[in-house]
Structures are given as C-alpha cells and as structure tokens.
Amino acid sequence: MIKIGDTLPSVTLQEYSEVEGEGCSIGPNPVDVAKASAGKTIALFALPGAFTPTCSAKHVPGYVQHFDDFKAAGVDEIWCLSVNDAFVMGAWARDQQTNGKVRMLGDGSADFAKATGLTLDLTARGMGLRSNRYSMLVKDGKVATLNVEAPGKFEVSDADTLLAQAKG
Q1: pTM as predicted
Q2: Given 13, 31, 55, 75, which residue is catalytic?
Q3: Among 10, 29, 59, 167, whose CB has the most other CB atoms within 10 angstroms?
Q4: Domain boundaries, given as residue ranges, for the chain
Q5: In this predicted model, what pLDDT tens digit does every residue of 63-81 receive, in sequence order?
Q6: CA distance 104 to 5
Q7: Listed residue (41, 42, 45, 52) closest to 148, CA to CA
C-alpha cells in the first residue's frame, strides 16, 4: 500500500469537462497524474463509487463546502477519484455542483487504485473492484498525509480531517 513519502503512481485518469478552456476540449480528457500534481499541493480523496449514499451525502459535499478553507491553507487543487468512467464523474460533478472547486477524476479501470494498493473488492455486491475510501494530502506528487478508512466507515477521510492536516 502507498505510504507517506511515496510518489503518486504514474497513471492517467480521465476528467469530463463541461466547457472548453485552458486548451481542453469538451468531453473526457486525459489527466497525467505526474504532470498534474507536479509543483502543487493537492487535497486528494477517493471513494468507492459515484452517486453512492455516503459519497454523495457527506464525502463530496464536505470538500465543496470547504473549498475556500483549503485554498487558504495552501491547497492548489482538490481531486476526487472514483473507479467510474469520465462520463459518470461528469454527471456526478453536475449533481454535486463541484465545478471550479473539486476535480472529479475517473479511474475507470482502477489503475490508480491498484497502483496504490488501495482497492476494495465489491464483487459480491455487484460492483467489482473499486477504490477504498481514503484521503491524502499530496505535495509535489508525494504523499504528505494518508487517511484510510476501515471497511464501511467514514471517519478519517472527511474534509475536516484533511483540512486540519493541510493547516498543520
């Protein structure tokens, strides 16, 4: 499993863009994790699936609500990762009103989840291999803090916990 001090895996995630800007075309766009995290402080959180109850009611809203606080604490970007495709993540972004606050990144084939060792096997529940629920503060592509949830829990990967670590 990835740990504090490790570099994020060199994988490509997908992001759905609603509007054209910064050289991005509308639609799914590749996000090279190494390039996108270089020189930045990122509040990254991951969860098992878009539109799932805890993720939609608590996890994402906390990060959207604390966007300004994260910026004030020196965080450049907030990333939400899920083992979903870019189209689902784009629809969820619209539903959660994350535009301009949280980058909703699809890890469709679970490449990032597998590379970090933070997978969650939900095959028995019909969901296949997913990402565990966790958060991390990333500085210049390296893990500075890591908060991994116990199965079925939502206690340490919330926005308040990561924000306190970002301020620390």
Answers
A1: 0.93
A2: 55
A3: 59
A4: 12-167
A5: 999 999 999 999 999 999 9
A6: 24
A7: 45
